Amino acid sequence: MKVIFLCQRLPWPPDRGDRITTWHFRQHLLARGAEVHLGCFQEEDRDAEGVAFLKQRCASVVAPKLDRRVQKLTSLRGLLTGEALTLPFFRHRELHRAVRQWSEAPPDLVYVYSSSMAQYAMDTKAHAKVMQFAELDSDKWRQYATKSGLLGRWIYGREAKRLLTFEATVARTFSSSLVVSDVEKELFQQRIPGVVPEVLPNGVDVEHFATGGDSQRHAHTCVFTGVMDYEPNIDGVCWFVEQCWTKIRAQFADARLLIVGSKPTAKVQALAQVPGITVTGRVPTTPPYFDQSAVAIAPLRLARGVQNKVLEALSMSLPVVSSPQAAQGLGDVPPNILTVAETAESTIRGVCELFAEPARARAIGTAAGQWVRNTWRWERMYDRLDTLLLKLGVTFPQ
Description:
Helix content: 40-55%
Low-confidence stretches: none
Radius of gyration: 21 Å
CATH topology of the largest domain: Rossmann fold
Largest sheet: 7 strands, parallel
Distance between the termini: 10 Å
CATH class of the largest domain: Alpha Beta
CATH superfamily of the largest domain: Glycogen Phosphorylase B
CATH architecture of the largest domain: 3-Layer(aba) Sandwich
Strand order of the largest sheet: 3-2-1-4-5-6-7
Shape: globular
Strand content: 15-25%
Mean pLDDT: 96
Number of domains: 2
Oligomer: single chain
């Protein structure tokens, strides 16, 4: 089975949300015997190693380098053409040539992750074309517009409208559209009427994100994980520090906050000057930091979908205090597994109650780990993908 697989970032290493998802689903297609041709971008110096690694596994890999500073200027062409700025930002001749070459003999499947990459496959002939939106990117820009000043409202508002127009065209062109949760499905049908997407959630690597025990755990430490140049992460953790941290420290003088993730911006790095806060930058792996902590926090305000940081913390047998936005993609969660806190007051209360009762916190974490292992392991998501592809007449080699 021949597959063209397109995504924004090189799907290795699986150390951030989109890389995790694209790594696992691409890996599953390979494991089922598919011949995978991968098109994506390199954004970091270390990505050259990833290209070499993936070329050993895929039939071919085309991954031109993407300089975000240059592409931001390039994207301004969209103001002249009337299109969403996202599209020229992720447009590259080399990728267009590669997709044309790969599709000279029509593939069995074109699998696209992120709407910006669909521009490469709009006219491609294939037995089936799957668009994994995960979430509507246009709605991300809509949320940014609501939090911005006058200029930001105009730029982000324009992007939201123009990108939604493109997303609707993609959804009506491709064989199937996938979203990450029932919440996203409802929003999708409101914004793109007449198209009913399928739900394909993220999973979690429950073998990797498994607690090593309590020997290093500190009863008054909380942890936040994520790529720290991503605006929803910056907004969420800064809000937590500004609105909650002083009051938590007033109750627990030894309270610590670990902010764990690559590419911390200057605004995030400055948080390390606040008593009790550590900003790590990139780390080899996150489980040791979960195992130092009593509570994980996910105070995201500009996000929906299924948050990997929440799944990973739960898999590590940690209780999580989460905003409604970060929690709603999980659907029905058993009672007491997750503390959903909408305000600063309820967030402070949720963290402090868990700090005050270590035995209860550990019991909640243990139950959380068991639930995630039963419900959210990647193998379950692979089965769902296989079922979705079978509906499209896409079958794997025997």
